[in-house]
Amino acid sequence: MIAVYSKSGRFGDACKLFHEMPDRDIVSWTAMISAYVREDNFFGAFRLFGKMQNEVEPNAVTMLGLLQGCPSMVEGRQLHGYIIKNGLLHDRSVENSLLNMYSHVDSVSDAEILFGEIDKRDVVTWNIMLSLYTYKGDITRMIGCFRQMSGEVDPSCETLTVFVSGLAECGYLFEGRQIHCLALKKGLFDDKLRACLLDFYAKHREVDISAKLFEEVHYRNSITWNTMMLGFIENGLFKECIALFKQMLLVGVRPGAEILRTLILAYTHMGAVQLGKGIHGYIIRKSFVESGAAITALETSILNMYLRCGSLSAAGVCFDRMVGKDLVAWTSMIEGYGMHGLGFQALELFQKMVEEGLKPNDMTFLSILSACSHSGLLSEGCQILYCMRSKFSVEPNLNHYTCIIDMLDGRIFGALLAASRVYMDKKVADYAANRLLELEPDNAGYHTLISNVKASAEKWFEVEDFRSTIKSKDLMKLPGWSCIEAKGFLHGFVSGDRSHPYADCIQQTLEILNRTMQDVLM
To answer: Residue 327's pLDDT band (boundaries 50, 70, 90)?
Structure first.
């Protein structure tokens, strides 16, 4: 009954029943410890564990419950010592649970030592280590672990899912395709692995394969829909993302906060503020069962949409009405003021945030320094940089120093190159270009920038060389595009685009406006 009360959310009744029991055996003690863990009260569980030893001897099941909720390495090592002392380490479940505990408390070294001491490692043991390396972003060890595992045990669906999720973040397209083939060969497919492969191919710009995998998913939950929508966004297919959202509504799936955040992100990229306002109204009318953090994140997405679509007043109203403003919301609003050249307002908001007891992080400082940079507030920016370390114990990184350099008319080498194009400084341009090519030889954006600088200097042979390099290395730079809403319709344009049915008329109107502005300025 203790377990029943606990699992149904009646923790108080479970405690009352436990304390009223005249004779408590190992089952009742273990159930009560698990109830504390389920309530995220590990220290209560740990105290109960100490009292338990005065009446009965804990067993392997007791240790499994404690290890599941262990919050730190200190308590974890104490439990590890108890397990060894009482001869419980021979139990496979205890070994794996102990390994999983070290993984959760972020102790790679302890996990590796224990892993090396386990004689017979099953697929669960290997999956724990693989998940740890994936979480840490240690791709070399992750791949090495997978290869070593393949020589001992057969991988499971979970193994391939974890491995593919790690590969998705690091550009290993060939290896991911091999895992896809392995899954097909061994018949290990499930919907979770399909969704993970879907995300993998989308991140590697193989969105057609992602769409095919999406169609193969039998049970599409909100995570699957959201993953495919994000895949379209990552590949610049914003209209496809919106169409998929409409398809989701047609099959009766009610969107949660996470999916609405993704939809708002698509509207933000498109500059479709009117469509975004429609979703904002929908959110206000509907009630959500998600946690307060999820709702705050959704409201912050709306805030970002208004800021990036140029509607600063709407963003301000949205920000003022937010009940639980977290650090991300404050940072977004500070960044928004900076984007619009309102450096002093950004500084005032930063000060207000600090007064309300929120500690800024590195992203907050990057936003406020960027705001100072855009507004030319050199003195204020330097003061912010100084107080990062002295007052808030946040170590400045390259991006923070770049903002300061930008205030001094340069953004390290990329900004220096762009500035040299404006001021026609050949010597500085050559120096900055060479350093950029050394640091980021495969950056398509920098190759394009260097090509444009050379074109400004009328060095056409060098321009041709750079553009040939871009083509030969397959360095694809996604074209920048703009959107405008007119009479309820959304129109998108990329540079040099003539596909719009009224392209000629639009171009003529722009030329007339351009000449009119030139006449006024003259």
So the answer is: very high
